């Protein structure tokens, strides 16, 4: 395991909806600068799909194995966490032989290559999923819509819900990310927006997607009011 990046602190796996799980972990962006990041887990029978994978501790992996068998991992965004994008994907491919799903044109760490290319209307790693792609983003970026529970959007960098600094932030990261506009509920990822420059019309399309909840890779689940809250954010940022 020494050839993989070290595992960093994370919380417990929680079940948000039936067969939909969420765990908050962390990543060291640089020495002394740690932020949180989150992984969504979808279960179909005994098959697990990990979205924006976060490496778990041995105890965490035992809990994961209780849920089912990891067969798929998904990379939804190219910009996601910058240099740390896809940091733990090689670990899960090595440990479980998981298949990697990603958009066309994405590059991967550890010499990995995409096993299944994601595209709107194409094959999905598990049932009840559809794909939304930000066509104007300078780097490939997409979201899943899980067609259960009145709709659940699963996002990478584009939509975030860091409503407050959590226990996984270092002090330096907490200060910098707050000043940078990251610590806001129902937010558009500030650096993703700046770097990838999506067209405002993309968010009009997002507002028409059928969803009620958001499971972000940055922040906590936003349940029941996600669409209403995000539409208000879109209106404010693109007014």
TrEMBL record:
Q: What is this protein called?
A: MBL fold metallo-hydrolase
Q: Which organism is it from?
A: Parasedimentitalea marina
